[in-house]
Design goal:
The complex is a heterodimer of chains A (105) and B (116).
Chain A: E1 4-7, E2 10-11, E3 19-25, E4 33-38, E5 45-49, E6 53-54, E7 62-67, E8 70-75, E9 85-90, E10 97-98, E11 102-104
Parallel strand pairs in A: 2-11
Antiparallel strand pairs in A: 1-3, 3-8, 4-5, 4-9, 5-6, 7-8, 9-10, 9-11
Chain B: E1 3-6, E2 10-13, E3 18-25, E4 33-39, E5 45-52, E6 58-60, E7 69-73, E8 78-83, E9 92-100, E10 102-106, E11 110-115
Parallel strand pairs in B: 2-11
Antiparallel strand pairs in B: 1-3, 3-8, 4-5, 4-9, 5-6, 7-8, 9-10, 9-11
Classes of the chains: A mainly beta (105), B mainly beta (116).
């Protein structure tokens, strides 16, 4: 099975900061990677799919990049609504895996 | 508009059985995977399994194989996740989701609390 390693686990940032979260896979995923945002008590929200495609309605300050085994989620200018936990998820072959999550505080 | 509405919170004792539901609406085709995701208290997300809506093909993550059963009743647009014997370690929030390129649509989650 594919293992996903997400870093950092916690990130301290301020409004306006540029934030980068990394996700590494134990084997190549091609571009089959998604990013989610989750706030306490809420279901996850899809932000990015196919590594770099922005989901409809998601602000353009979010972007994804990478392919193969290394991927990045970037928030270009952190907004108050962006303080949350972020997860990467591979969907190359089932069983699909999430990363461990990154809490942005 | 696609919507997934899950059944309400459950409180059970270890050893009891349980079935939770996820009613979906607004889908324009059956070429979708319905996924179940577990989130234990204070922890991350785990895929439990996926069920293809068109032919009910079910695939389980190794951790959950033999522990749960996923089914779909297409006639009433409802997916189910069931346990025959709950354990205290099954205490978690369970989400259903529609997965295509990523999981775009999610239910609100069902909190299952199992006491020992």
């Amino acid at each position: 099975d594919i293992q996903m390693t997400q870093s950092p686990s916690t990130l301290s940032a301020s409004v306006g900061d540029r934030v980068t979260i990394t996700c590494r896979a134990s084997q190549s995923l091609g571009i089959w990677l998604a990013w989610y945002q989750q706030k306490p008590g809420k279901a996850p929200k899809l932000l990015i799919y196919k590594a770099s495609t922005l989901e409809s309605g998601v602000p353009s300050r979010f972007s994804g990049s990478g392919s193969g085994t290394e991927f990045t989620l970037t928030i270009s200018s952190l907004q108050p609504d962006d303080f949350a936990t972020y997860y990467c998820q591979e969907y190359d072959n089932f069983p699909w895996r999430f990363g461990q999550g990154t809490k942005v505080e | 508009e696609v919507q997934l509405v899950q059944s309400g919170a459950e409180v059970k004792k270890a050893g009891q059985s349980l079935r939770i539901s996820c009613k979906f609406s607004g889908l324009t085709s059956t070429n979708h995977w319905i996924a179940w995701v577990r989130q234990m208290p204070g922890k991350g997300l785990e895929y439990m399994g996926i069920n293809f809506l068109r032919d009910s093909d079910a695939r389980y993550s190794p951790t959950f194989q033999g522990q749960v059963t996923m089914t779909i009743d297409k006639a009433i647009s409802t997916a189910y996740l069931q346990w025959s014997r709950l354990k205290a370690s099954d205490t978690a929030i369970y989400y259903c989701a529609i997965h295509g390129d990523g999981a775009k649509y999610w239910g609100q989650g069902t909190l299952v609390t199992v006491s020992s």
